[in-house]
Specification:
- This protein is an all-alpha fold and about 475 residues long.
- It has one domain: Clc chloride channel (Orthogonal Bundle).
- The protein contains 17 helices and no strands.
- It is globular, with a radius of gyration of 22 Å.
- The two termini are about 15 Å apart.
């Protein structure tokens, strides 16, 4: 009796031998998690030193941090028209520009996008010098007052270490791609103290159309876990932000207001990448040397900070005030800070500076959510805690703008411990994401991560996949 040939049920390898040696790759992932965690600790130390030297010494400005914010009941008074801020942001941009364009031009911009590009386009290759240049340039950019985040640089630094490790061990191209993903997850986990969310983020951020590099997930999970444990040994255990116990979800009617917030965040999630890349394109057209463009961006950020100094740096302290419901600011100020943070982020990173886009996007979402919550209270039609609206806004804006709804939902819950708001967050993120996808069809830049591929089959990394066996 003739038996038909059936397709093999064994998973196909990605390329020639990726994932063919899972235990070796697991050990390398654990090692990379440790190295990524230690790298994050070193980078945070560099950032603190740069911030004291630039903003502290030059301008006499000390941005609010999370620990300080937990004891406050309102935004602290800011010194407006402090002209020394201009010196700090401009000098920081100049030094960062000279470093980046003099030694490693690929270190400009937000690091996570570079890691995504390395996976799709460069076979997991990241030059070793990027690790050093990215560390120093990002610390100076953010420490001098640039409106950028510390997570993108850490992701690119750890991804660069993974790429270097892959070359030293003569791994295959696909194994090097895997090391880049594990490094990215480890770096983000160490910064955000979100091991599960960042492990998912690393396999979700590659694709703009809700596709996943699912086979890499066990390894990103392992690397993220080790990075989280390492960084907590140095910075303390617990969540990144502290959310009050009274912020919860206890009535189905509340979902209506969170759904409306999701719609507002979907619009902002469409605006954010287009402002960011529109400013980037404008700087690229300037007939000036690339080395000095970040200084111009820094100068413009400094001019905004003369009136709104709260936009300087990553803004973690102000986000803490938002999620604990103690901003003590009016609706107009919150909206202005949210919008000017978008512009300041675009000027800082789009001009060629070095820094991440994740934290500033969370800042925008937190203040937008807080403003929406205050508006509902003023109109007398909703009584949801402003802190809850801020927390959900954080997830909805970034989840939509970056096309990573699942990872962001988990990450914000881990960063804040706000699991009681998981249902409203899921609804708001889903609405924000779907609205952003619909609106972005009519815009030149659909996502905050330009290197994303829409579907897995379109990625150059999939070109070597063997076809399935014929029946």
């Amino acid at each position: 009796m003739h038996t038909p040939h059936l397709p093999s049920l064994r998973p196909r390898a990605m390329g020639s031998d990726a994932y063919a040696r899972p235990w070796r790759m697991l050990l390398l992932s654990l090692l990379l998690g440790i190295v990524g965690g230690l790298g994050a600790v070193v980078f945070l130390g560099m950032l603190a030193l740069a911030q004291r030297g630039f903003l502290g010494v030059l301008a006499g400005v000390y941005p609010l941090d999370i620990a300080q914010a937990t004891h406050l009941h309102a935004l602290p008074p800011a010194a407006h028209w402090n002209l020394w801020i201009l010196l700090s942001t401009t000098l920081g941009g100049l030094i960062a520009g000279l470093l980046v364009y003099g030694f490693a031009p690929e270190a400009e911009g937000h690091g996570t996008d570079s890691a995504v590009k390395s996976f799709h386009q460069l076979k997991g290759y990241i030059r070793a010098r990027v690790i050093v240049v990215k560390s120093i340039a990002s610390a100076i950019t953010i420490g001098s007052g640039g409106a950028a985040g510390r997570e993108g640089p850490t992701a690119q630094i750890a991804a660069g270490i993974g790429s270097l490790l892959g070359r030293l061990l003569r791994l295959s191209d696909d194994e090097k791609r895997l090391m880049v993903l594990v490094g990215m997850a480890a770096g983000l986990s160490a910064i955000f103290k979100s091991p599960l969310g960042t492990a998912i983020f690393a396999v979700e951020v590659l694709y703009a159309g809700l596709h996943f590099e699912g086979r890499a997930l066990p390894f990103t999970l392992a690397g993220s876990a080790l990075a989280y444990a390492v960084v907590c040994l140095f910075t303390g255990w617990g969540t990144l932000f502290d959310v009050p116990l009274h912020v919860d979800f206890d009535h189905p009617q509340q979902l209506l207001w969170y759904a409306l917030l999701g719609g507002v965040c979907g619009v902002m999630g469409t605006l954010l990448p287009n402002v960011f890349y529109g400013v980037r394109d404008g700087f690229r057209k300037l007939p000036l040397p690339n080395h000095i463009k970040p200084a111009i961006g820094g100068l413009l950020v400094g001019l905004i900070a003369l009136v709104f100094p709260q936009i300087l740096g990553g803004g973690y302290g102000i986000m803490q005030l938002a999620v604990q419901g103690t901003l003590g600011a009016g609706i107009l100020l919150l909206l202005l800070l949210s919008l000017f943070k978008v512009v300041a982020l675009a000027l800082t990173v789009g001009s060629g500076g070095s820094g991440g886009v994740f934290a500033p996007s969370l800042f925008v979402g937190a203040l937008l959510g807080a403003a929406f919550g205050l508006l509902l209270q003023r109109l007398g039609i909703g009584h949801e805690p402003v802190a809850g609206m801020a927390l959900v806004g954080m997830a909805a804006v970034f989840g939509a703008a970056a096309r990573v709804p699942l990872a962001t939902t988990v990450m914000v819950a881990e960063m804040t411990g706000g699991y009681t708001l998981m249902a409203p967050t899921m609804l708001a993120v889903a609405i924000a994401y779907l609205l952003q996808v619909a609106l972005a069809r009519y815009t030149p830049y659909p996502s905050l991560y330009e290197a994303q591929i829409y579907v897995r089959s379109a990625s150059p990394a999939r070109a070597d996949d063997a076809p399935p066996p014929m029946p």
